[in-house]
Amino acid sequence: MIDFEKMGGLIPAIIQDNDTGEVLMLGFMNRQAWETTLATGKATFFSRTRNKLWIKGETSGNVQIVREIRIDCDNDTVLLKIDQIGGAACHTGHKSCFFRKMENGEFKTIGAPLFDPKEVYKK
Question: Model-level pTM?
């Protein structure tokens, strides 16, 4: 049912907090990531920069437990409503990857990181 062919084998996956409705991140899935997500109940993605599969939270512990899955009208985008374990969805330590807000023509950071990425990712 999902059309993986339109974007060369990848589909966008919008990640939304199941309780608050806040959009936490956007990731991409290939067929293997999709099937792994369905089999495990944990949000799994395909990293375009690392060219490999990754389970959200495998390093940080900030796992995403899938509670509901929706698909768009074109069958080429999924929406995952999740429970965010650990509080932070973003690798920068912020709750959401969308932590910059346009105000008066400039982007302002809203909220503080919930963890230090240098400590978590040892970079």
Answer: 0.91
